Amino acid sequence: MNKTIKLKIDGKVIPAEEGQTIVQAAHANGIYIPTLCNFEGVKPKGCCRMCTIKINNRYMTACTTPAADGMEIENNTLEINDIRKSIIELLFVSGNHFCPSCEKSGNCELQALAYRYEMMVPRFPYTFPQKGVDAKSPKIIKDQNRCISCKRCIKTIEDEQGRKYFAFKDRGYTLEVVLDEEMAKTMTDEIAQLAMDNCPVGSILKKEIGYKEPIGTRKYDKKPIGSEFEV
Amino acid sequence: MKEKINQIINKYNSDRSRLMDILLDIHDDKGYVDKNDINQLAKSLGISAAEVKETVSFYHFFSEKPRAKYNIYLNNSITACMRDRQGVKEAFEKACGITFGHVTQDSMFGLYNTSCIGMNDQGPAAIINDIVFTNLTPYRVVKLIEGLKEGKELRSLIYESYGDGNNADPDMQAMVNNNIRKGSILLNKNYKKFDVVKNELSKHSPEDVIQMVEESDLRGRGGAGFPTGMKWRFGRRVEGDHRVIICNADEGEPGTFKDRVMLTEYPDLVFEGMVIAAYATGADIGLVYLRYEYKYMLKYLNRILGEMREKNFLGKNISGIKEFDFDIRIQLGAGAYVCGEESALIESLEGKRGEPRDKPPFPVEKGYLNYPTIVNNVETLASAVRIIKNGAAWYSQYGTKDSTGTKLLSISGDCKFPGIYEVDWGTSIREVIEMCGAEKVQAIQVGGPSGMLIGPRDFDNLSSSDLMKWYKPSGMMVAEKFFDRKLSYSDLPTGGSMIIFNTERDLLRDVVMNFMEFFIEESCGSCSTCRNLPYIMKMKLEKILNGHGVRKDIDDLLTWGKTIKVSRCGLGQTAANPILSSILNFRHIYEQHVQAMADYDNTFDIVKSVEAANKYVGRNTEFHSN
Fold first, then answer.
1. Whether residue B146 is found in the same domain as residue B184
2. Pairing with B490, which of A29, B43, B221, B373 sits 20 to 30 Å away (CA)?
3. Which domain holds residue B621?
């Protein structure tokens, strides 16, 4: 058993185990810190910046920062929430997220976060990027217009030898997550389903199946994102 | 080809962490990596082809498409633009018969844009097959291309003599000039090569050496200003099978070229600094991360390292000190500004994309291949040699109380004497302006740290947040009201690049735009904020410059800029600074471009906007107002 430490989130003292990240400690104690790129079981990378918190007047990411004894964290504040909302808006205007026609609607974390943070009209102008859809693979469709480059598929979808199905391509504004052409040919149904499930948005979709679960009855249709952690 | 690539892979023992070298060698051999090469690499290294491409597509100087016999990379830094880069660009396009981003049909010439190549004091400059051509003019371009078409050897077409100092060394033969305008304790010809390693080091314990550096108050010269002695002390304390000293020679901050001059004139001083750092920290692995743009120095620098090995200043039991084993390898980059950030640099050294790591853990705890790693700037290492030679008290005579020693400034732009100036910390901007002979100065871009501060987490009483407080991002456009501020860690910290703009320059359209394009081009793309926001802010700036802006647009830019501060690394956090600092210091220029009394853009003309569509379908639309 690891040593128990104490930290403070928005004035509330919570216990944590040494080695836990701030997100893990918060969620274990009924406090929600929103995440997108974070995925239980793999090393966090702090790509989406959604879990931004403030410690000692400095922005940190709660998914990558280990909890430490005596830490004082600002989480659910006007300032932090507005930064989070602006990141959601940034992701919406930098892609083409048309929820009504998306197979992931209701199961999409980005959409759910937009509802939770009450996004109305994004403050930023839409950039209308012209990105492609890769449907070459027999099992999945990779829609680049919906990809938020969170790296979850890159980090979690591997074959038995540890080779990655997905990888980044290019950098900066033209960055894309691409599927390995050769490995795509031999992708199994299980891997394809896992890739779709691990994608927080509708960028990876399994072929030949759709709307099996009606919209309106899906995960975030019933309860807002984060409520699974909140007391 | 397959055989050749196998040889290259074997040379590096099929080691995935040497992917950079493998790719560099393949590029040396055939100029690019094609699909077959990538598949072969993937197979040999046990990774997917997409993973190989991940690294290939990250770096500017790697190519998946065939390149030309002569690949011309024309630097697009702002000072080049101020010296008729446009004319030079057009001359290249006309002479080669293609536009930039393309290769001629006969595969003779390829034209590419590239970010600042460290030649701001002698631009426009281009790198052609690793050889640097400076002070380009349209005339010189025409003669150069003519010569190549006639089949002349590339090096024979160098139109100026080789540059000053060691630029003319037989192993370098570069048309590059040092332009040293002011020396002091680093740029000093009285330096006795390797005197400290040979005669001084054995007199001191590693602990003494660290203490001397601590007493001198030497701080990181990359710009973040982390206390060097403290960094060494941490590095020494962390357990590890190996410890690593990295010399960061990836200066990519627009307008910086001091490391180029240091490595040209005083490579021995820098390498000696690495040996001292290794002795102090107990490191056995030494790496120099040299930016690809400085590849022309590689042979020369490797020769110096070879000489050091011969004299036992590298190798085993260095200078007769028992069990002091240390050697240095130079790793070339491949064109990515973000690799100047120390954790991105380490990722790159491991053959990966240069994406900064999350901290903690800091490199001092877990760095290169997870060993404790100390990353120091070229200038920091050189300063350490002078400190050990002359003592901390001697060193602190220079500079101010909170910023001891000297700083190398790379000065370029509108001034009579662009080049390198070694000044004491505490020198004011106004003095710098006078020193370099600048007149009618409108603004100065003072380069800030690109890197995030490093340091370990839980050493003694020092917490992460204590370490974080050292980090002060700057990188700003300063106006006259700043000219009496002093260059120092407490007032105006800088990595040393200063670009001067006179009153004739169009600050927004030319300068700020150029910097924004740089940050968009050089973002690694990992953080959602730095990947998207600079692009969107540039859109907004374009809107303002096109006359469609209103006052609110200026305020929007300022508020949007807050979101980018949550990015992971210094590059991301400061990527909007060109816009933010120019609004803060030159708001009046923005005001001139926006519609004064309007609350929203009311210049939209619906008739004009559908004109093209109407013409196409042969329709006349009438608009009715009721």
1. no
2. B373
3. 506-626
